[in-house]
Amino acid sequence: MTEELMTHGKAGAEVLSSILGRIFSRAVKEIYTRGGVIAQFEGDAVLAVFPIDRYRDALDAARSLDLYFRKNLHNRTRFGDWEVSARLALTAGPIEWGIIGKKKLIYFLKGAPIVRAATLLSEASPVSLQIDDSFQVFDNSSISEAIADSEDTYRKAYDNTCRIRKSVAERFVPDLILSSKLTGEFRDITAVFVALRRSPMENTQSSIRSILEKAAYYGGFVSGLYFTSSEPLITVLFGAPIAWENNESRGCRFACDLKRSIGGGMRCGIVSGTVYAGMTGNSRRCTYTVFGDTINTSARLVFKAQWGDLLVSEETAHRTGKDFAWGERTSCSLRGKREKTVIHSLLNCQDSSIRRVYQGKMLGRSSELRSIQRRIYALKHGAFAGITTVYGEAGIGKSRLIWEAALEHERLSQTFVLRCDDIVRTSLNPFEYFFRDYFKQSSSKSAAENRRSFEEGMEFLAVMLESCGSKSAPSLIENLRTYQSMIGSVLGHFQEGSYFEQLDPMQRFENIAVATGILIGALATIQPLILILEDLQWMDDDSKRLLGFISGELAKYPVALLISSRYMDDGSKPETGIEHRMDYASIDLEPVNEEASRSIVSAHFSHHPGADLTTFIHERTLGNPFYIDQFCVYLKNAGFVERRRKGWRLVSRNQEVPSGILSILVARMDRLHNRLKKLVQTASVLGQEFDLNVLSDISEEKNTDFLLWQGVSEQLWTRTKETTYAFNHALYRDAAYGMLLERELKKLHTKAADVILSRNASDSDKVAGKIAFHMEHSGKHSEATEWGWKALRQADENSRLHECLQWAEKLQSILMKNSAVGGRPELLCNVLFRRNDVLYKLGRHGEQGENLELLRKMCEDEGWDDRTTDLITVRAHYCNSTGNLDEAFSLYEKGLEAAESEENLESQAMILGNIGILHRGAGHIDKARECYEKAIAIFRILGDRGGEGNVLGNLALLLRHQGSSAEAENHYLQALRIHREVGNRRAEGYVLNGLGNLSADKDAALEWFRMSLTINREVGDRKAVGMALGNIGQIESDRGQFETAAQNLDKALDIFRDIDNLPLQAGILNIIGEMYISRGDLDAANSSIRESIDISRRTRRRRNEVTGTILLGRISVLKGDTESALELYTQSYNQIIKYGFSFEIDEKFTQLRKLLIENGTDPAALPLPPDWDQEG
Predict the structure, then answer these.
(1) The pLDDT value given to residue 351
(2) 718-770: pLDDT as tens digits
(3) What is 985-1010 written as a DSSP string?
């Protein structure tokens, strides 16, 4: 009957609704008037329960209904006569009921009488009443005994007329069902019947909770939980009561996810088709249910499946085939069907990380799409696909174009999103977003659950690498385990004593960058990788810095980086900073033409839109695809268009139509249901992406789940993860936020701060930035300052320099704005010192100078005399770094005097150490040694063994350069003992490196360097790793082992470029150049050495410059250009005399001199420095 009436559309649905309404209303009436209740509707059946003392009422109700169905067997309708038969069964015995779930609940009834009733019905003939032996044994005496033994509740008069509070009902039933009058209709749905293997009730309840959670995640409606057999059965509907575009895919993904969770403890039948859906019953007792062959087939299919199997109908498999992996295709006989049913075995999802936000076909962008796809094609050959940035104004279709390009390669690659935060713009936010997605982190999970998900994700990654067969897999697995704590730190997973905890702030950042590169390399080794960076214009500087670190690593793997970006306010194009050193292309996305506009408009109207209408829309929207979409929706909802016989037309061109896109979106928001509109505005306060749990806590709305579903249906946002939603377009968020009045904004921001703090009470520092942001926008400056300072320190501790600078400048602004000269808070002084430190590390010397001048003046104005020594010291550091050595000496002397007057021994020792470094650089060997020895003496008085060891190492370096090898070795060994005693592994690595440089025995030197390399890798000091690799490479080059030398030197150079250390780059480039000279490749040597000299001059590193100049002289001799070689010799000689580098580069210099003499140059024309050996 249902299938036949479907062919008559809405009229058929009305007829079926009438028949079902009459039948079930009669059932409700007969049961409830006799003291029973309908415990469950089970599709086209009901389960009624009577108290044990009302067995006669139960029998009367059953007989009355049996008689009713016999008399009303035939139903005459305008579409024909239909026979409606019914089977009834009576059983008796104890049953139990319960409630399962957390946020969403479901109730159940179970017991032997329910199972026996289902068995009787399955075996009964149509129009029959079956009475089980358990019911027939009751007579007057046994009933009396049963009543006497029962609970008091069974002896009381049964009240079955009470109403349920809506707040209670909402926990069990979607608000759409409670608040809407859902009439009967035919719907396309996917039904998933799940059977659970019989197990202890505790395990069964856990499985059912998992089903409830996963059904909610995928947008399914759990319509019933039945214990009508030995196996609990659950029905999950996709497409009713809420319609989705991809019911089949949602149902299959739900089943696959469930299988991963429950495994062999479940089996599924999945069928798609058209059903009748609507409310069944009457005002006394009703439910939302569905009828049709689709439901019956899925129920029967589940019992054909083996445990752990997912059986899917032919139609469902056909609609979703490309998204899933399929097993055997077979056919089977099902009860009630004449022909065999074709079924497919669903194995798993073809995991796609691409979130399908967009509907319909993309129009007007075919050439741009082909351009991106041609670049991504490199992934098929295992090659780097470069960086492609799509620029354009808001709504022009940047993200849509990129997603469409990625979708074309979905089967061959994996895709992840790096979304830039438009609100707080916290450091490394896009990478944190990527990590949270991959490692399935969720705010709905506990910290322990998130950590477990992270650890399982890392282990799974290692397993996938092992099975992929790549030669690089073993080293990647080893590196992943080494750097696991680095990746975990980005997600807030810290472990005492871990690799991460042992590092200083600068090393932490560098090692997080290394770990990110390793993770991306591992993923790309398993399967080509597409990374989508959304909204470059909002990318924080630390993320750009990290991207610069890993750019070299990206280029080694099959990775495509696709970027979307708006233009800046001045029309310029934002950049990541790596465009000019990598394969790069950009696309400027222009508005679509009128033909494409017409196609977009046509997609919104079922009949052909008139030319006037499409021209009007194109002119008003200027060919912006998003504007066109929103304008069409607005015109239809506002009644500005009407459908006529020849198509859609404007009602009147004189109607007042909003001119800007934000006005259109505001008008659209105003037409939303008030509850949804309010929720959208609340969500806008949280940013482009928001957490369901945070939103629920902030909102006054009790049932956010239903409204979130409505928002998805309205295409306002999309569910991106289990508890996370994102606005489908930033303009939706902007429009909603702009509608809020200042008072309401402050109220919502305050609530947001309170909720975020409450949900992160045990580790509030990690969300300090978000709390500070909301406090600032709520007008609570004191609280904003407190949390902003915590955010600044958190960023500083992890060397997130740009985030630290951002907070320093924000706090400086707030504190100066809310105080006057003479009454500035001392926190401002601390903020400015932190700002100075960051600017120094970033090399932004101009801003640092201005900051120091402000700090100097403020210390005078506010009387912060206790910071005088600190101020002088940082000013001296600044002068040293900017090359103003005289001023640096002068300030260090003043600082030393201030420290002495304050009797601050610690400051004295630190300043003396710095003065010693200045003297060493200037060639003042004796003065440097004097400063070092004084510093060592003070550190010994203080008992500061670490400080003593550091200065001993510097003194040893000075003695090595002076040529006092034995004394240098003695000091190095003293420093080594101290560092090992205090456990300073990092300093130990540096000393071992120094001992290697000191050793004349190349084998012994190589051993020192390798020991240093092992420790440096262990502690994560990349700078020291590079130094050790460079030294090892130099020895290998000297021995003619050019292949391994080149590998180590290239690794060292990559590291120094990653950490942006120019002086060390210059040193390695000289070593590489010398290696090329030994190999006879003079052109390559010349290029490498000239790059080194250029860097050395820019950084004023004279010793590297002199070394490079000498090496260029050797190249000139070898090329036969003695004249140029002689000029370079003279230039080197003058630099050696000027800077006092006598003992540091004597070997290279005398080697050049010998070459020139061998080529006929008079030795008298080749002077040596006065204190050098004049022989030869």
Answers:
(1) 47
(2) 887 767 888 888 888 888 898 888 889 999 999 999 999 998 888 888 889 89
(3) HHHHHHHHHHHHHH-S-HHHHHHHHH
What are the pLDDT digits (tens) for 637-690? 777 777 776 777 777 655 555 556 777 777 778 778 888 999 999 999 998 889
Beta bridge partners of 343: 313, 330
| Degrees to nearest 5, angle at CA 401 with 395 and 404 | 135
Q: Tell me which amino acid residue 619 is.
A: E
Q: Report how far residue 312's alpha carbon sits from residue 876's, in angstroms, rounded to the nearest whole number.
A: 75
Domain encompassing residue 661: 595-671
Instruction: Provide the whole-model pTM.
Output: 0.58
**C-alpha–C-alpha distance, residues 591 and 394, integer Å:** 11
User: Exposure string (b/e) for 157-181, b if CB count within 10 Å is 16 or more?
Assistant: ebebeeeeeeeeebebbbbbbeeee
Distance between start and end Cα atoms, the chain: 113
Same domain, 568 and 616: no
What distance in Å separates the CA atoms of residue 130 and residue 56, rounded to the nearest whole number?
15
191-205, 353-367, 812-826 — which is least confidently predicted? 353-367
Q: How many CB atoms lie within 10 A of CB 429?
A: 23
Cα angle, residue 984 at apex, residues 981 and 987 outer, rounded to 5°: 115
Q: Give the position of tokens 């010397």.
A: 845
In a domain, 337, yes or no: yes
Q: 580 and 657: one domain?
A: no
DSSP 288-325: EEEESHHHHHHHHHHTTSPTT-EEEEHHHHHHHGGGEE
CA 1059 to chain centroid, in Å, comes to 24
| Cβ within 8 Å of residue 1164, ≥6 positions away | none
Cβ neighbours of residue 475 closer than 8 Å, sequence gap 6 or more:
none
Report pLDDT for 1101. Answer: 76
- CATH label of the domain that carries residue 437: 3.40.50.300
Torsion angle, alpha carbons of 113, 116, 118, 119, to 10 = 180
Contact 69/84 with Cβ under 8 angstroms? yes
Q: Do 482 and 421 reside in the same domain of the chain?
A: yes
Query: Which of residues 112, 147, 166 is at a domain's end?
Result: 166
Helices (H), 527-622: 541-554, 594-604, 611-621
428 and 563 part of one domain: yes
Q: Are residues 250 and 386 in the same domain?
A: no
Give the Cα separation of 942 and 909 in Å (integer): 10
C-beta separation of 429 from 420 below 8 A:
yes
Tokens for 1060? Answer: 């942006």
Regarding whether 401 and 269 lie in a shared domain, the answer is: no
Task: Write the DSSP string, 697-725.
Answer: HH-S-S-HHHHHHHHHHTTSEEEEETTEE
Give the Cα separation of 453 and 459 in Å (integer).
10
Q: Which of 221, 227, 230, 233 is nearest to 287 (CA)?
A: 221
- DSSP letter for 609, please: B
For 109-114, which contacts have Cβ atoms below 8 Å and span 24 or more sequence positions?
109/39, 109/40, 109/47, 109/49, 109/227, 110/227, 110/232, 111/227, 114/47, 114/227, 114/228
